[in-house]
Write a structure and sequence with these properties.
Helix content is 13%, strand content 32%. The mean pLDDT is 93. The chain has one domain: Pseudouridine synthase.
Amino acid sequence: TYWAIVSGAPPKERGKIEKRIAEDPRRPGRVVISKNGKDAVTHYRILERFVDFTLVELRPVTGRSHQLRVHLQWLGCPIATDPDYGGRQALYLSEFKPDFRLDEDEREYPFISRPSLHAVALEIEHPISGEPLRFEAELPKDFRTFLRILRSYRPYGEVIDVGEKTD
């Protein structure tokens, strides 16, 4: 299970993306949607809406490299900070906070400059016993900061289901 902060919003509250993906011949290390690619399936649901952004939960059925990133791009709501797949390079507080000011000798740094995508939980089978194992990871500081900024400066007023992991 992954969480992503995307630009825009998916067309429906929840859905399934079934689009084949293949390596991009023009951009090594990246993938594209391709009818000749490998099967790739991702389930998504909206967790929280903001003005211009959405927090989305993603559950990949297949585990293709860059699958979530290219599927979200195809859906029209790329990961907010993912320049390889339609997002921005980085985001700055000055873009959100109307009264943001810097002193003359100060420089602004981005509050997030990596893809706003996080594996909140991974589930695997124990290799010997076959028991299901679940590993959870807290949201990183930059991701939490992004959510806090969105809730402060771009609230939409609709929380759908964010669970316990957003503090």
